[in-house]
C-alpha cells in the first residue's frame, strides 16, 4: 500500500545550493563533522576490533547525505558514535556545533534532542496510538501537554497522516508506520535526522513515497539528513552527496554530480552501472565496449559518441541515462568485431569519452 505525499505549506524554507555543497570537504558550513574518529571494541578473548579507523567526514548543513557500504563496513557503529551512544576511542564528533565527545551527561541528553532517529522498522509502541507515539519523546522531555498536542497535530499534517492520529500501529500499513516514525523523530525539532536503512523493509512504490517525504521534510524544515543504506537507488533518488564506507574508513565522498562525473570511481559505477546486454550478444567474434558519458562542458555529447560508434561499425546493445544532481550520466554497451575494438576505444578516447573492452 502506498502513501500520498503530504500537501501542507512549508513550515520553514530550506535550500541546498552550490555554496553549501562546496563546503562538503571542510568543517566550515558543516552540520556534522567527524575528525580522525577511531572506535575499537575489545572482545571477551581480548581481541581488538577496529570498527572505525580514522574516519573523517563532513556533512553540509541542510543537505541529504547518503552513507553506503557492505555489511561490516562500520555503518551501525558510525550511527552510534554520532549520537554518542558509543564513546569514540579517539577523534572528534561534532553535531550542530557541539563536540559530542566532550559533553557531560546532562549536556549530552540535551544534545541528543537535536538528533532525530528513523529506523529500518518504525519501532512504534503497539499499545499507543499514532498521536501517542509521536508525543512520547515530547513527554519524556517534559513538554507541557497542551504544547505536545499542538506539535503532534503539526507532525501528523507534515507526514500526511492528519486523519490517522487515533489509529494503532496494527491498523497502519508499513509505509504509514514509517511516516509515524519520521514524525516522532521530528517532533522535538531536531537539527539532524539520522535514517538507518529507512526503506529496506518497504516495497518499491512505498520506498519512493517515503524518500519523497524525507526530501520534502528537508525542504520544509531545513533539517540535515543522513541516510545509511545499502541501496544505490535510494542515493540516486534523494541524496545530494554520498560517502562510501569500507572497513571503517570513508574511501570515497562528495556531491553526487562530482562522484558520478568521475567514471573511474567505484561509487560512480555502482550508482550508474554498466547496462546489461541482451541474450545472444555479443555474437561470436565480437567484443563488448563499455562507454561512460557525463554531460558537462568539454565532455562529448551522446550523439557524438553514437556517431563515432556508427562510423566504426559498432552497434549499441544497451544503454542507460540518469540525471543525478546537476549531472546527466550515460552508460552505453557497444558490440563490434573484436579486431576493430581497439580502434573504437581510441576514437572515443580522442573525444574525451571513457571506453574499455569488457573482460
UniProtKB/TrEMBL annotation:
Residues 32-272 form the ABC transporter domain. One of its GO terms (molecular function) is ATP binding. GO terms for cellular component: plasma membrane. Pfam families: ABC_tran. Belongs to the ABC transporter superfamily. Homodimer. Forms a membrane-associated complex with FtsX. This is Methionine ABC transporter ATP-binding protein. The lineage of its organism: Bacteria, Bacillati, Actinomycetota, Actinomycetes, Actinomycetales.
Amino acid at each position: 500500500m502506498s502513501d500520498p505525499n503530504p500537501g501542507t505549506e512549508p513550515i520553514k524554507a530550506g535550500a541546498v545550493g552550490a555554496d553549501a555543497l562546496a563546503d562538503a570537504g571542510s568543517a566550515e558550513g558543516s552540520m556534522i563533522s567527524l575528525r580522525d574518529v577511531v572506535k575499537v571494541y575489545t572482545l571477551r578473548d581480548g581481541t581488538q576490533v577496529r570498527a572505525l579507523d580514522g574516519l573523517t567526514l563532513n556533512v553540509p548543513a541542510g543537505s541529504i547525505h547518503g552513507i553506503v557500504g557492505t555489511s561490516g563496513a562500520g555503518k551501525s557503529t558510525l550511527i552510534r558514535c554520532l549520537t554518542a551512544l558509543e564513546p569514540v576511542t579517539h577523534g572528534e564528533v561534532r553535531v550542530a556545533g557541539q563536540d559530542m565527545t566532550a559533553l557531560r551527561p546532562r549536556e549530552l541528553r540535551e544534545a541528543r534532542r537535536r538528533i532525530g532517529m528513523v529506523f529500518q522498522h518504525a519501532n512504534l509502541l503497539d499499545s499507543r496510538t499514532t498521536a501517542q507515539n509521536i508525543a512520547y519523546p515530547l513527554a519524556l522531555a517534559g513538554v507541557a501537554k497542551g504544547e505536545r498536542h499542538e506539535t503532534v497535530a503539526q507532525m501528523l499534517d507534515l507526514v500526511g497522516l492528519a486523519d490517522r492520529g487515533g489509529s494503532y500501529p496494527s491498523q497502519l500499513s508499513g509505509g504509514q508506520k514509517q511516516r509515524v516514525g519520521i514524525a516522532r523523530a521530528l517532533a522535538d525539532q531536531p537539527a539532524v535526522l539520522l535514517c538507518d536503512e529507512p526503506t529496506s523493509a518497504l516495497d518499491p512504490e512505498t520506498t519512493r513515497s517515503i524518500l519523497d517525504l524525507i526530501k520534502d521534510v528537508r525542504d520544509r524544515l531545513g533539517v540535515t539528513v543522513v541516510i545509511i543504506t545499502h541501496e544505490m537507488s535510494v542515493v540516486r533518488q534523494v541524496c545530494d552527496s554520498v560517502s562510501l564506507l569500507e572497513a571503517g574508513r570513508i574511501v570515497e565522498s562528495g556531491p553526487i554530480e562530482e562522484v558520478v562525473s568521475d567514471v573511474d570511481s567505484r561509487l560512480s559505477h555502482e550508482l550508474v552501472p554498466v547496462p546489461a546486454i541482451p541474450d545472444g550478444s555479443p555474437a561470436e567474434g565480437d567484443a563488448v565496449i563499455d562507454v561512460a558519458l557525463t554531460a558537462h562542458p568539454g565532455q562529448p555529447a551522446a550523439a557524438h559518441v553514437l556517431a563515432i560508434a556508427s562510423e566504426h561499425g559498432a552497434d549499441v546493445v544497451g544503454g542507460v541515462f540518469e540525471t543525478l544532481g546537476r549531472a546527466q550520466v550515460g552508460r552505453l554497451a557497444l558490440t563490434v568485431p573484436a579486431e576493430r575494438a581497439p580502434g573504437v576505444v581510441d576514437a572515443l578516447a580522442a573525444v574525451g569519452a571513457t571506453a574499455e573492452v569488457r573482460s
